[in-house]
Amino acid sequence: MRPRHAAVAAFGAFTLLLTVPASASAATGEFQYTVTGLDGRPLRVVLEDPESEQRITLPEVADPGASSPAHSPRNRTTSTATVFPEPGCEGDFFTLRPITGYGSARLQLRSVVFG
Q1: pLDDT at residue number 2
Q2: To 5 degrees, how large is the angle CA 110–CA 91–CA 44?
Q3: Does the pLDDT at position 99 exceed 70?
Q4: Which helix (H) or strand (E) holds 2?
Q5: What are the CA-CA distances from residue 77 to residues 34, 80, 106, 107 (Å)?
Q6: Cα–Cα–Cα angle for 37, 70, 29, nearest 5°?
């Protein structure tokens, strides 16, 4: 009977491993964008290994009434980046492919989601 109990316990442990959600996954790599600094000069900002499937409002440009949108995104992560012109991933969107995706200075953004 003991081998049978051991087999059942091993199967149960294996099943539990399959059903426990993995820790939050991240898009490996960097997501870069440009904002206008307080002195009026362009400033490159980098998000390193951003969380996947999470709406990220870019803190430097979160308030549309107080700042210009970010621009010139570069997606150097392993995930697709979808950028939005409004905070909270609202409005029209543009998708940047993994590793080599980029947008020009005309592509304005205030939020992004990776997935």
Answers
A1: 52
A2: 20
A3: yes
A4: helix 2-19
A5: 17, 8, 21, 18
A6: 105
At 98 the three-state DSSP class reads coil
Residue spans of beta strands (DSSP E) within the chain: 29-36, 42-48, 56-57, 70-77, 81-84, 94-96, 101-102, 108-109, 111-114
81 within 8 A of 27, measured Cβ to Cβ = yes
Strands of the 81-84 sheet, one edge to the other: 56-57, 111-114, 81-84, 94-96
C-alpha span between 57 and 7 (Å, rounded): 49
Which tens digit of pLDDT belongs to each residue from 46-79?
999 999 999 999 999 999 999 999 999 999 999 9
pLDDT tens digits along 16-53: 444 444 445 889 999 999 999 989 999 999 999 999 99
Q: Which amino acid is at 87?
A: P
With beta carbons less than 8 A apart as the criterion, state whether 80 and 98 touch: yes
Token duo for residue 51: 């969380």
- Please, are residues 76 and 39 in contact by the beta-carbon 8 Å criterion? no
